[in-house]
Amino acid sequence: MGTLWETLDERLRPDVVASTEMYARVRPVLDALSESMRSRIGDLFDGSDVHPLFVTARAKTVESFREKASRMLVPADGESVPQLEFPAPLREIHDLVGVRVIVKLPHEIRDAANLIKRRRSDFDCRSDREKDIGSVESGTYGYSSRHLILRTRGDDRARDFQASLGGAVPVNGNFVFEVQIRTVLSHAWSEIEHDIRFKNTEPRAWSPHTDRQFTATAAMLEAVEDQFSQIHERFQTVSGYWDAEGEGAVALDPDRIRQIWQTLLPHVDRKSDDDWGWAGELLAAHSVVTTLEFARLLQSDVITSVRAALDHRYSPGPDRLLDDVLLWHFGTRHIELTAGGDRQRADSLRRRLRQMEGYRAAK
Q1: Residue 178, burial from CB neighbour count under 10 angstroms (0-12, 13-18, 19+)
Q2: 356/98 Cα distance (integer angstroms)
Q3: CB–CB of 346/339 below 8 Å?
Q4: Cα 107–109–111 angle (5° rounding)?
Q5: Which GO terms fall under biological process for this protein (predicted)?
């Protein structure tokens, strides 16, 4: 199976050749326009909350232009001569200039796209497509990217390019180009896949096994991105706990205590029920009433020390571990405030406190 150019109907070749020759002549002007679009898109993010890793741009190569200009439509019934998909490719192909915005995490794709689309005074968004929707809905894996088709408004660089075409298109500065937004991992996958699939000098080397390997790597990268997203979301949540004027000031109730515990200590959740009322009573006894105060008690070094000091025979659940953490922090005061008239509990707390004191002394 040859390229589109190689299989192009001979009757259509003259038109494609003429367009390709003109494109080759004006491509240096298009390079300047491409750099201008890269700069303008990159400038949109200055001072915003969206921080791409990098923004690149390219003008379509002459070979790629010829290949795309060679696309044919399926002949309708009764038609003997096929038609070109792009009869006027210099006007109808919308990715002569392509800008790539590369971000770290999947949620930043949405943020970047929304920021660009809001700048209506700079660009008119003609199309917005998520190229992974098909694979998600079909249960497969593959190319993942957000594609915007934008049009400039009276851009001087666009006028220069249009003028260089010698009347083939109107000289109005309204130029259509493509912006692709994707994560750095998807970008790496796309670049490698594109080089092997489309730039391969020996098409016969491609095999179903290669397809399978690319599908597998796309699945793995999606799983990695999911993990990175979870890390980011958790870090943002935990950072909020330490904001004394924001999330850290939120008052504790049983639901809030459960949420904080399961965020900070997701591996310690062996609880037979979902009642966090007793935990709330223990914390209230020490006037621990805000998110920040609770988070301060659950530092990882404290959890490690408590475990080492008590060497639990059975891995403690949330209630027991919280009780031990409060005993570590408040010592005999915790016994006085929470043992009440329960002698068995008081004896257990005193025994555990002696273990903690012995551990501290040995340290």
Answers
A1: buried
A2: 64
A3: yes
A4: 75
A5: guanosine tetraphosphate metabolic process
Q: Is the pLDDT of residue 136 over 90?
A: no
**Which run of H or E residues covers position 360?**
helix 343-362
- Give residue-wise pLDDT tens across range 175-222: 999 999 999 999 999 889 888 877 676 767 778 898 889 889 988 999
β-strands 97-103, 123-130 pairing: unpaired
3 state DSSP class of 277: helix
pLDDT (0 to 100) of residue 195: 83
Angle at 8 between CA 3 and CA 12, to 5 degrees: 150
Q: What angle do CA 128, 142, 84 make, to 5 degrees?
A: 60
Per-residue pLDDT band for 132 (boundaries 50, 70, 90) equals low
Residue 211: what pLDDT?
A: 86
pLDDT of residue 79: 66
Q: How many angstroms separate the CA atoms of 247 and 244, rounded?
A: 7
Rg (CA), the chain: 31
Mean pLDDT, residues 249-265: 95
Tokens standing for residue 359: 């551990």
Q: Which of 98, 37, 35 is nearest to 64 (CA)?
A: 98
Contact (CB, 8 A) for 217 and 189: yes
Q: What is the pTM of this model?
A: 0.83
First vs last Cα of the chain: how many Å apart? 74
Give the ranges where 86-170 is alpha helix by DSSP (H): 89-92, 106-118, 133-138, 156-164
CB 146 within 8 A of CB 182: yes
Secondary structure class of 147 (helix, strand, coil) = strand
Distances (CA, A) of 36 to 54, 61, 117, 158, 160: 15, 17, 18, 9, 12
- Domains with residue ranges and CATH for the chain: 10-206 (3.30.460.10), 242-362 (no CATH)
DSSP count for the chain of H helices, then E strands: 15, 7
